[in-house]
Design a protein that fits this description.
By secondary structure, this protein is mostly helical. Helices cover 51% and strands 8% of the residues. It has a three-stranded antiparallel sheet. Strand 1 and strand 2 form a beta hairpin. Helix 3 crosses helix 6. The longest helix is centred in the N-terminal third of the chain and has 28 residues. The chain is globular. The chain starts with a helix and ends in a 41-residue tail after the last strand.
Amino acid sequence: MTVRRGTRTTRRARARSRATGAAAAALLAAGLLTACAGHPGAAAVVDGEAVSTDDLTAALDDLTPVYPGVSPQGVLTILVTEPFLSQVAAARGVGVSDDQARAFLEQQAVQQLGEEEAARLDFGEQAVVVGRYSLAADAVQAAPDGQAAAEEYRQLVDDADIEVNPRFGTFQDVGVAPPTAPEWVVPEGGRAPAAGDGSGGDAPGDPGATPAPTSSPR
């Protein structure tokens, strides 16, 4: 059998092209999954201070029994922005102590699980941060200058240098939005039809940013 050189050369070129593309995709994927620059193991960095992945995991472990629908993005938003909200609350004389925050979480646990089950829970430091945020949000919203307080909080967040590990998403507005897959990643079963292509499929929804402060983690 005779093999044409041109055919062999073309196949080699295609193979090299596929290998190069796969290597580039692997490098890009690795970059997307790395932690914040200069802070290995960080879920986020706020003005140079790291919020560790371990802290986020601990908060999720403590809060999930009480808030079954809690998400990593919702909790990370709180861990990132709580210092700014607490600053606004303290300036108005409605700051929240750790004891108050822990008591709030214990009360929520009793309501959700009953006294016996709630008594088995032990809320760690990061869960207390979430409790402090929840009470401070209620206090700030109820303040006589609640609108001005909300604007001050937003300005503090806007002025902060906030970097989120791409593994968890991106910081948008005043919250962490879930990560989105790169264009080259094709979901199992193929991509959903684009809106308006006549196939009747719905376009993917916009995840949007995590809402502004509320009394319970999202």
